[in-house]
Amino acid sequence: MKAQNTIRFLEYPQLKELFNAASKDKLIYHVMCEMLYSSGITMDELLALNIDDIDFLGEVICVRKDENKRHVPIGSSCLMLLEQHMRGCTGKLFEDIPAEEFSAKLTEFSKATGIIDLPVSPQILRDSFSVHMVCNGIDPQSLKELLGTEDDDYIKKVVQTAKLRI
User: Fold this and answer.
1) From CA 159, how far away is CA 139, in angstroms rounded?
2) pTM for the full predicted model
């Protein structure tokens, strides 16, 4: 049961199953799943990314939101997938994929796993990233900066959820 002050998230084995299901479909969906989870960015931020926003050597992506920008670390396995995807890209990384189409694919992947008991959305991938970061020792202020959020209530819920998990 979901407590009022917690958020829904996926455990590591569930994420592995989800990524495995995504890997059996088009590469672009697998890349999008991995990027959302491994960076904690929002769907809007993901869809706004350009090729020039990826720093392969520094293993970071430059996320622009309004007048602000932040650099977000991204894992090497995700970068390898991204590099494969980028071979056919010019400009925007995910310009041919509407958010609704990707959300429908996430639902399809979660059903295919048979182990995920909640509808998976881009927000749940962000929530999973956030909870796992807190469980691995990130402090709330650093998480806020990484996520590019000012929402203290969200951060409190993430911390509360992580405490229940530990």
Assistant:
1) 9
2) 0.92
